[in-house]
Specification:
It is a single chain. The protein is of the alpha+beta class and 299 residues long. The protein has ten helices and 13 strands. The chain has helices at 67-72, 84-97, 99-102, 106-117, 137-150, 181-188, 194-199, 212-225, 242-253, 270-277; strands spanning 9-17, 29-31, 37-39, 42-46, 49-55, 61-65, 122-133, 151-152, 167-170, 174-180, 203-211, 257-258, 281-282. Strands 1, 4, 5, 6, 7, 9, 10, 11 and 13 form a nine-stranded antiparallel β-sheet that branches. A two-stranded antiparallel sheet has the order 2-3. β4 and β5 (49-55) form a beta hairpin.
């Protein structure tokens, strides 16, 4: 691959911590358009971040968090540690803070500990992202306009209500979002340190969001895309690490292609090449041999 690929970061995780708890845990209720009410998380504050916790309709304990914010206090630096590591730490935190509410039988406690140590924690949702640093706001906007007006995707494109001025590919089981990270930080993260907010300027973030249905079939799809790649169960945390983050991210981002040119050259990610034409570079360059994954981008 001639164009430098980015290091892919974990931006959000939602997972089922294997506890059988007797009492409903939530921080309130939200009425949906259908009229049903769903539980909303309550937030446990850690020294540099927060964890959302709530029970789902099957009395499973759902946790959601941003590992970068827990590690650094923000999500500007990348986070690509193996996924089971922060989940194991969170499970230990819940043991301490919610033991009186959870308090499953002793046999269940031992079973939970064994699953957690093995990384066999089921994922509900996973967001992967990468940032591209542009030399100026003008060049960033030029690349954004080119992507918005002259590129296509195999599915529908709508506006994301959470980010003004975004390119948002809304699928049934996965989404892809492209937005100006600097504008988002300036509008929403005024409490972050000034040097971190400055670092986010002139960055375009491309984010892939995978839901549980997609995660269940992802291991087989990745094995088909990359010859010789083993079939992994990517619906649990165990196998997720930097190599998998990069391969999965490239697989989805490659679906953005120029109109009239649906088949990219071998080993080329069209989106990475577009950004390079506007003077952008990955905010964090991939240095772990990720270039070898370019072959899966032509599928």
């Amino acid at each position: 691959m001639t164009t430098s690929p980015p290091t892919v970061s974990v931006d959000k995780v939602a997972a089922y911590i294997p506890y059988q708890h007797r009492n409903l845990i939530c921080g309130g209720w939200k009425e949906m358009p259908s009229g049903f009410c769903v539980p909303q998380p309550f937030w446990i504050t850690l020294p540099s971040g927060t964890i959302g916790v709530h029970s789902d309709k099957h009395d499973r304990l759902v946790v959601q968090f941003n590992p970068g914010q827990i590690a650094y206090g923000h999500n500007i630096f990348f986070f690509d540690d193996p996924l089971f590591i922060p989940l194991r730490r969170i499970a230990e935190t819940l043991d301490r803070k919610l033991s009186s509410t959870l308090s499953p039988p002793e046999k269940a406690i031992r079973a939970n500990v064994l699953r957690q140590r093995a990384g066999r924690i089921a994922l509900r949702e996973l967001h992967l992202c990468a940032d591209f640093a542009f030399p100026s706001l003008q060049s960033l906007r030029g690349a954004y306009r080119e992507l918005r007006d002259h590129w296509n995707s195999p599915r529908n494109r709508v506006q994301n209500k959470n980010f003004s001025g975004t390119i948002y590919l809304n699928q049934k089981r996965w989404d892809l979002v492209v937005y100006d990270k600097g504008t988002h930080v300036s509008d929403e993260k005024s409490e972050w340190p000034a040097d971190i907010r400055a670092l986010a300027q002139n960055r375009l973030r491309v984010e892939v969001r995978l839901r549980r249905q997609e995660l269940r079939s992802l291991g087989a799809r990745l094995a088909r895309a990359v010859p010789g790649f083993p079939v992994l169960d990517l619906s649990i945390a165990y196998d997720w690490d930097a190599l998998i983050y990069n391969a999965v991210y490239d697989l989805y981002v490659s679906r953005l292609r120029p109109k009239g040119n649906p088949t990219p050259a071998p080993g080329v990610v069209p989106l990475f090449r577009l950004f390079e034409q506007f003077g952008a570079r990955p905010a964090y360059r991939r240095i772990d041999g990720g270039e070898s994954w370019g072959s899966l981008l032509c599928r």
